[in-house]
Amino acid sequence: MNFDETSLEQATAFHEYFLSVRDIRLRDLAWAMKDSPEIGLMDGSLESLVPLWIWARQHAAAGLPSVSRFDRPASAIFLGAPPDKMDRYNVLGETIERYVLEAALAARPQLVWAIGIRSFPDDWRHHRTTLRIPNGGFFGSSGMGKQLWLHAQHLVRKRDDMIFLTVTMDYHDGVSVPTGPSILTPFLDLPPLAWDDPARIPPIASEIGLGTPVTLAGPELAEPQSGESELIFAAIGTDVEDLAHARPLDEPAIAAVLAELGFEARFLEDALRVSETQLLHPSSAILVEVFAHRDRLRGLHFELHGPEQENLAVVAAFTSLGHRLRARLGSEDDWASGL
Which residues contact 45 (CB under 8 A, 6 or more apart)? Predict the structure, then answer.
């Protein structure tokens, strides 16, 4: 199985896992770099990617001493891929990739977490967790391979609908030197995690088994899949049968996300405080019902009737928001089962 064969539910499960292990990935990188001078330059800036690349090549040449011979990349475990001789390189690749994406977020605050959508045949980003420009394209960061080839560096450029942070193997004259405090050294105050620590184990796509795989129809793109989904967004731990007692949600943050998705922005925040208010997207494909109590938003009920891309945009936006607000998006069955 590849990512472009996963269902939306499976891709969403990996997306949630990816966001949840942010600190684990940076902690792994900190311990891998602990004896190198480059760790002091890891200030989360685009400039820091140049010394990161220098260190990565040296670390690979030394035989990847930070990576257990038993370790496997999370994406391979999730997809059920057989063991491969490149697994240890790709473990380090996933660790470095997270730092690269954090640097991209710091440099371009308008980027948001998203689940990639195919825009051309063989688009490797389809159903992968990535970054997106609001109302724009996706950010590319992929492919470590034998030489740990990183799509990362100090320059940001646009090609077609993709935003790439590009890297070369050479150190370029005129690149600014990182000047901020290292974002990695604080992680050295925590002990390293074992390669088989349960906190780092991803879900397995075949065990989720939800939905229908999304595949290409011949050489042409498949038509966007339409469907009907009903989802609830509320604070983690909520009894969705008793939303009146749910923890209040952040109305301004939710209003901002709804506005970005195309809902009418005027009075949106006020509407989120009035129970049973119904918000209809201009496309008529998304209906949101408000559950409020004592002038505070307690939950949202989504009815999604649009094509796959439109439904996916809502799921990705509110999954990402949920990680910020300690909330989650799920079906009634998901909430009932505690998934």
Answer: 103, 106, 107, 178, 180
Predicted confidence (pLDDT) per residue in 209-268, tens digit: 655 444 433 333 323 334 456 899 999 888 888 898 899 999 999 998 898 888 877 778
- Let me know if 317 is exposed, middle or buried by CB neighbors in 10 A (0-12, 13-18, 19+): buried
Beta strands 162-166 and 138-140, pairing class:
parallel
> Residue 18: helix, strand or coil by DSSP?
helix
DSSP string, 231-245: EEEEETT--TT-GGG
According to CATH, the topology of domain 229-337 is Alpha-Beta Plaits (3.30.70)
In terms of C-beta density within 10 A (0-12 exposed, 13-18 middle, 19 or more buried), how is residue 329 classed? Answer: buried
- What residue spans define the domains of the chain? 3-200, 229-337
Please enumerate in sequence order all residues whose Cβ is within 8 A of that of 77, keeping only pairs 6 or more positions apart, or say none.
Answer: 201, 202, 204
Bridge partner residues of 115 (DSSP): 129
**Mean pLDDT of the region 278-292:** 86
Question: Cβ contacts of residue 266 below 8 Å, gap of 6+?
Answer: none
Distance (Å, whole) CA 272 – CA 265: 11
3-state secondary structure of 121: coil
**Cross-strand bridge partners of residue 279:** 288
CA 319 to chain centre: 9
Average the pLDDT over 5-12 and give the result.
85
Q: 8 pLDDT exceeds 50? A: yes
Whether residue 328 contacts residue 321, with contact meaning beta carbons closer than 8 Å, is answered with no
Contact assessment for residue 104 and residue 141, using Cβ atoms and an 8 Å cutoff: yes
Whether the per-residue pLDDT at 338 is higher than 80: the answer is no
Classify the C-alpha dihedral 78-84-86-92 as positive or negative. Answer: positive
Q: Vertex 270, ends 265 and 275: CA angle to 5°?
A: 115
Q: What is the pLDDT of residue 129?
A: 83
Phi, psi angles (nearest 5°) of residue 274: -115, 115
pTM of this prediction exceeds 0.90: no
- The pLDDT of residue 203 is above 70: yes
